[in-house]
Design brief:
Helix 3 crosses helix 7. This protein has a single domain, classed as 2-Layer Sandwich (Chloramphenicol Acetyltransferase). It has helices at about 5-15, 35-45, 50-65, 110-125, 130-140, 145-160, 240-255, and strands spanning about 25-30, 70-75, 80, 85-90, 100-105, 180-185, 205-220, 220-235. Helix content is about 35%, strand content about 25%. The chain has a 6-stranded mixed sheet. It is built from 7 helices and 8 strands; from the N terminus they run αβααββββαααβββα. By secondary structure, the chain is α/β, with parallel strands linked by helices. The two termini are about 25 Å apart. The mean pLDDT is about 85.
Length: about 270
């Protein structure tokens, strides 16, 4: 029996429709003072590590090690697990619009591999080499307005609800991976409450908010520390708030012990 396809999950996938906006919100503030020092050391050694790279890998490892429920999706009323942990990362394009890159099998990567592969993917997208994604956008945009909504809903029904592929568009139920990560702090927003992208079968969207110096209690004393705000939207059909709590707990552990991400487990 599929261990993710429990009685409650089958009922939840029937009760709740695919969220246009999220069903569960969660947020937390983390002290990243020591993590920033760790990142600075890595950058001095030649590794162009950022908070986005760090939290992408930490989130994938959290899913692999403590909350595999996040690596699932709904298809025809049942819950299925993805074969590997993939994710979509939002990026800022030269035009000022938001784009994205897909990172595959993240949990099996090292920090260096995450940095290098993501850099390669971003460069290709910003140079316009990702012609496949642009072609899909162009085809949808070329559909007359009166028909565009119908075409979009049909594509979503086939790929998201039925979990089928559309080969000539290159779309599958796993086009976006298990989750989406977006660093809105890098574009000047302190906190965001994301929507679950309705065209994607993602179980959650993780937001990295602003980084700021704040008074913080350490060992009973108030001291200035560097704090980041994280926000998440969870698909209540496949996970509960308890799973979000496990995710944030692991992220806190990774922030306090960033060296654990240097270990790659089979």
């Amino acid at each position: 029996m599929n261990r993710f396809n429990t009685t409650w999950r089958k009922i939840a996938s029937t009760i709740y429709r695919k969220p246009v906006d999220s069903k569960i919100f969660g947020s937390v503030e983390l002290d990243i003072t020591d993590l920033e020092q760790y990142i600075k050391q890595k950058r001095k050694s030649g590794l162009k590590l950022t908070l986005t790279h760090f939290f992408l890998l930490a989130t994938a490892r959290a899913i692999k090690e403590v909350v595999p429920e996040f690596n699932t999706y709904v298809k025809r009323g049942n819950i299925y697990a993805y074969e590997q942990i993939d994710a979509t990362v939002s990026i800022l394009l030269p035009s000022g619009e938001m784009g994205s890159v897909k990172m595959q099998n993240i949990a099996a990567m090292t920090l260096r591999e995450v940095v290098e592969k993501m850099q390669t993917a971003i460069m290709a997208t910003r140079k316009g080499n990702d012609k496949h994604t642009q072609q899909i956008k162009d085809r949808l945009a070329s559909v007359p307005w009166l028909l565009r909504g119908f075409v979009y809903r049909a594509i979503r029904f086939i790929t998201v609800d039925w979990g089928l592929s559309i080969p000539f568009l290159g779309l599958t139920a796993n086009s976006f991976g298990a989750f989406v990560l977006s660093n809105i702090g890098s574009i000047g927003l302190d906190m965001g409450y994301p929507a679950l992208f309705p065209s994607a079968n993602v179980s959650f969207v993780l937001i990295l908010g602003g980084v700021a110096q704040k008074p913080w209690v350490v060992d009973g004393h108030i001291v200035p520390r560097t704090i980041i705000a994280l926000g998440a939207a969870l698909d209540h059909r496949v996970v509960d708030a308890s799973h979000g709590g496990k995710l944030f707990k692991y992220l806190k552990k990774a922030v306090n012990q960033p060296q654990i991400l240097e270990l790659v487990t089979p």
